[in-house]
Amino acid sequence: MIEVKTIEFKNTKRTFLTNAWYVAAISTDVEGEKLFHRTILNKPVLIYRKINGTPIAMLDRCPHRFAPLHLGKRVGDDISCLYHALQFDCEGQCTHNPHGNGLIPKAAKVPTFSLMEKYGFIWIWIGDEAADPSKLPDYSMLTNGHSNSVGHTYMHVKSNYQVIIDNVMDLSHVDHVHGEIISTRGQLTPQIPKVEESSTHVKASWKWKQTPPIMIFSNFLPKPAEEAKHFVQVTWEAPSHIELIIGATQEEFDGELNFHNTTSQYDLHTTTPETEDTSHYFFATRRNHLEEDADFNQFKIKAMHDAFEMEDIPIIENIHTNMGTTDFFSLDPVLMSNDIAPVKFRKSLSKLVEKEINQS
Amino acid sequence: MIEVKTIEFKNTKRTFLTNAWYVAAISTDVEGEKLFHRTILNKPVLIYRKINGTPIAMLDRCPHRFAPLHLGKRVGDDISCLYHALQFDCEGQCTHNPHGNGLIPKAAKVPTFSLMEKYGFIWIWIGDEAADPSKLPDYSMLTNGHSNSVGHTYMHVKSNYQVIIDNVMDLSHVDHVHGEIISTRGQLTPQIPKVEESSTHVKASWKWKQTPPIMIFSNFLPKPAEEAKHFVQVTWEAPSHIELIIGATQEEFDGELNFHNTTSQYDLHTTTPETEDTSHYFFATRRNHLEEDADFNQFKIKAMHDAFEMEDIPIIENIHTNMGTTDFFSLDPVLMSNDIAPVKFRKSLSKLVEKEINQS
Amino acid sequence: MIEVKTIEFKNTKRTFLTNAWYVAAISTDVEGEKLFHRTILNKPVLIYRKINGTPIAMLDRCPHRFAPLHLGKRVGDDISCLYHALQFDCEGQCTHNPHGNGLIPKAAKVPTFSLMEKYGFIWIWIGDEAADPSKLPDYSMLTNGHSNSVGHTYMHVKSNYQVIIDNVMDLSHVDHVHGEIISTRGQLTPQIPKVEESSTHVKASWKWKQTPPIMIFSNFLPKPAEEAKHFVQVTWEAPSHIELIIGATQEEFDGELNFHNTTSQYDLHTTTPETEDTSHYFFATRRNHLEEDADFNQFKIKAMHDAFEMEDIPIIENIHTNMGTTDFFSLDPVLMSNDIAPVKFRKSLSKLVEKEINQS
Q1: What is the ipTM of this complex?
Q2: Are B6 and C10 inside 8 Å of each other by CB?
Q3: How far, in Å, CA of C222 to CA of C218, rounded?
Q4: Most CB contacts within 10 A, which of A173, A346, B5, B249?
Q5: pLDDT digit string (tens) for C268-312?
Q6: Cα–Cα distance for residue pair C281/C299, rounded to 1 Å
Q7: How many CA atoms lie within 13 A of A152 on its CB side?
Q8: Do A102 and C190 touch (CB under 8 A)?
């Protein structure tokens, strides 16, 4: 009688893989004694570090009366629930029951999640299958350089995670959405990218010349006002990671342009579903110029963070709302040559998710 | 696991006609280069003016990746989508594709909506049937006088639109809800209005004498403290428009009282569903006294706007919440002589909506 | 098209009895001419006092056009609806209709609810069965003492009401959740309480010795720093009331400890469902020391209110959210000796609710 709710059901289908590595947090966000918590794939997750620094993740829910464990306190490497002081070790096993005869109930276990800490991120495996470390993608390029050449940041996005991936897999939006600083002077938009794919990867690459060079690189090139060759390539790896490499050069040589033979940067865009309608967006970037400059490093990551927040994310969130569904293809989108890569990743991902759902 | 939702379904039935003219905006709200947008009958709509002033409406959603078009920019009379610079003309046809070979995909069309601009409002036709200009009601009385004799205003209401119509079709609430300024000194409430109806119209009218005359008119009558004859009539026209004429006179004559032979005003109340639970409420008023006084005109429309916001709308919104459904009759309302007109409009409207739903 | 809603249904089953007495308000919250309103068991309820002080409750919804009656005004002991001035007496019978012929429509009745005013609270019976005064629990102990020995307070809680009852029925949380002031120095937690039950009652009691005595009593004992015998007992009575008596003594005698032969307090915790996911939490406490001290009385009730707000309620609300359902047992909780009383009340209550649902 109190609140009117007229609801239209648009979509209730799960759109994400569970048996896969996702970024749970930036390494530096889980520090010291902190009981960090975040919802990941619809599950509340507690993340903290053992005294030796190893990160631990478990369901953020006591199996007794379901209090969030992040409200509790640390006892060495164990977590003591705030509510009744049941204590759990890093394997989620109850190690102390101060009640009654003190026996540990057999069922007093908290589900734990496998973690890996790599490339400045803590990665998590939520699904029921055994976590497979060999499936963690190799983004070691991120952290192979000077520590002042790499930055990490986090954004919360009110959108299904696939709309974030769409945005990075089709860079033809760059000249329309973003400002002068990464303008290609209209050179990128008309190009049909070269696209390669496998069942778990989609790679799109663009090459062009522009005068002056793209502003993020021009001052690091010999002739800042003159023409340069440019390239950018994005590689999606299932379920939700994209390596992006962009560079420019004024030198002449025959081989392919890459991170090492150009003035360039190497980025990782990776998104982790919070719910079907909200996402964690993690980003890291490494550059091969001014590598030791800590101030420039801070300036760079902040500038990129702000561009995402002010330019990309408002569009992504508006699209999610305007779609009213997480089922992109059900809306009969008009597809063009710039959509080849996003469409391929959506179709590959959809097959993987369907397979996982059918197997469970 | 995160959020508890226990939902009671009350009503999910559509309560509005789609093949009809509704007010989309006050003419002056869509000015210059502005890309105005508003949700109408659950659809996001972009409204803007061509350079020659003609208003245009289309779905506020790019058919490519579903970005809201109102975030884009104008290119002459065309709209360029912010996201990938697809450009659409006033017929919703894509006129420019900066991607790949530049060919315009056949499907690259945005649905448009017919508009008419009349009586200081922009009217829209959302339904799938061809818009029929002859079906636009005639409220030319509104704008036949001096431009300083008419004012327009807009209110957003968190209620199904029919509760707004109920409120105007039964004026017996006037002495209870409103203040001194439009008090009938209790004369109107006891009256059983004269009601006439057709399948698309319901008209209710009241006549009475009061001393002193209603305050909105008393100072414009020869003897402000003495008895005057009054009349008020409301005419609903499907789906959601109400003409209201109210006047007072101290002269003696035999004919019917009307706008011309009394000190009076001519109002239009019209409401446009935003969703089933929220509405756009448009109002315009013309008076036949102090017609050239711009200051008084501003004062008058502001006073009426404030009365709606402070007195009518809180009740309307509370009723909508307290009903917990949009199906008024399912609650077995106690009906009285003052409900004849609202009940008649609800029944006529309900037949029209049911007919439309059955035909589609 | 506007708002994405992906909804998981967790539970839509009613969890509360309707044919029972619940606290509707603290007596002093319904004062003078005030038209108090509160949602109780999903129904909007108007509560006010007749001129002679008798409290009255009725559905807060005019049967004519469903305006909330608390927006109206008093006419003696009657309520006049703000919208059309229909007037209702304390039996909900329409007594005045200013419209048309002025006849009172037969159906013009507002459902009323039986009230009882006892123990500083106004109690309400919402269900369709006749209210049975003999079913009101006897908490006369609360108000048998000096008026300065008793205090009442109210908290709004975003949780199903059973989680509040869980919290009081298992006091083993005291040493973990609360501060020094009610610390048992770890004595209470290990105890397996003595539990007695009937179909409508569950009683759990604990006894222990501690040094120093519990701080709420220590200064009222002969030797504030020395060992004292303590007891606490909680008695749930269906559907949602808990009597809690706690005391300490340093005297030697053989009988049972109780309110009278110890330094002690007598509390009532009672909760009233607002909706399935939100609750009204009422609390009253009477002590048998410093009974005439008005300042101490105010200090005491405020301190207890603040402890609930800052310590218990955040846990209760987090648990409700973290459960994602109102069906506790569906989550396979790990149960221990301290859960005997909460489990017993949940099972008894569940039987009563099921029985009521099946009978209706």
Answers
A1: 0.92
A2: yes
A3: 8
A4: A173
A5: 999 999 999 999 999 999 999 999 999 999 999 999 999 999 999
A6: 20
A7: 16
A8: yes
Q: How many CB atoms lie within 10 A of CB B308?
A: 19
Whether A283 and A308 have beta carbons less than 8 Å apart is answered as yes
Contact B349, B238 (CB under 8 A): yes
Kindly state whether A332 is in contact with chain C, defined as any CB-CB distance less than 8 angstroms: no
CA distance B64 to chain C (A): 16
8 Å CB contact of C337 and A100? yes
Residues sharing a CB contact under 8 Å with residue C138, sequence separation 6 or more, in sequence order: none
Q: Which residues contact B193 (CB under 8 A, 6 or more apart)?
A: B171, B204, B205, B206, B338, B340, B341
Joined tokens for residue B208: 């009475």
Q: How far is CA C154 from CA C31, C165, C302, C307, in A?
A: 16, 15, 11, 13
Assign residue B123 a region (left: φ > 0; alpha: ψ between -120 and 50; beta: otherwise).
Answer: beta
Return the ∠ at Cα B330 (arms to B328 and B334), rounded to 5°: 70
A324 shares contact with chain C (CB less than 8 Å): yes
Cα–Cα separations (whole angstroms), residue C134 to C20, C130, C262, C329, C334: 11, 12, 31, 32, 38
User: What is the CB neighbour count within 10 angstroms for residue B100?
Assistant: 17
Element (H, E) at B47: strand B43-49
Token pair recorded at residue B345: 């409009």
Q: What contacts C308, CB < 8 A, 6 or more positions away?
A: C153, C155, C281, C283
Contact residues on chain A for B322, CB-CB shorter than 8 A? 1-2
CA distances from C210 to A342, C214, C241 (A): 68, 7, 29
What distances in angstroms separate CA C306 from CA A70, C216, C303, one per listed residue? 22, 15, 5
Contact between chains at B190 and C102 (C-beta distance less than 8 A) = yes
Residue B248: its H or E element: strand B241-249
What pLDDT digit, counting tens, does each position of A76-127 carry?
999 999 999 999 999 999 999 999 999 999 999 999 999 999 999 999 999 9
Determine the Cα–Cα distance for residues B112 and B125; give it in Å rounded to an integer.
10
At residue B311, what are phi and psi to the nearest 5 degrees? Answer: -115, -50
Give the relative orientation of helices C161-169 and C313-323 as an angle to the nearest 10 degrees.
Answer: 120
pLDDT at B360: 80
- What is the structure's pLDDT at A10? 42
> Which segments within chain C are labelled E, that is strand?
21-26, 36-40, 43-49, 55-59, 73-75, 78-80, 87-88, 94-96, 112-118, 121-125, 150-157, 194-197, 201-210, 228-237, 241-249, 263-275, 278-287
Element of type H or E holding B75? strand B73-75
The answer to whether C239 touches C352, Cβ cutoff 8 Å, is: yes
Rounded distance between C-alpha atoms, residue C110 and residue C64, angstroms:
10
Buried b (16+ CB within 10 A) or exposed e, C185-217: eebbbbbebeeebeebbbbbbbbbebebbbebb
